[in-house]
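Consider a typical record:
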Amino acid sequence: MSNSMAQPNLDRLAARHAQKIICRLVDEDKEGKKRTDNKEIKKAASSADNTVTKALGVLQENGLYACLLYLKAKEKENGDVVVEEMLNLLDSLGFGWGKPTDKNGKVDTSAEAVLKHVAEKVTANLERLLLAKETMEQMLIYARYGAKARG
């Protein structure tokens, strides 16, 4: 049973991006330097767990668009990291969605650009949207457990 197009391993992608979320939110400070103080790590892990748990709830109850809107509106710095990894995961699904860009061709993670991108590209095909949502849920679940393991 050979398929000419290689199918991505969705669980592996979800795990990889969840690890990146935890690395960026827990293991590194805002400047990208490695945290060494256990108290700081536990505090960052608790904050990451809180952000990811809330995002997961919004995703499950209201969908991908609402989840991204919530993260951009309510979760500030943690939310920006999660949104960036969500965009990276969406891009790696292989549907050609890409990422939102500004007029100079640079990735634009502003709320307006992200929400417009999702509304125009990701929600256009229901089957792909549902697959993306399921993969996002898995990523956030892994990130949640990763944060708990660090805390």
Summary: The domain at 10-150 is CATH 1.10.520.30 (Peroxidase; domain 1). The two ends are 44 Å apart (CA to CA). The first helix runs from residue 10 to 27.
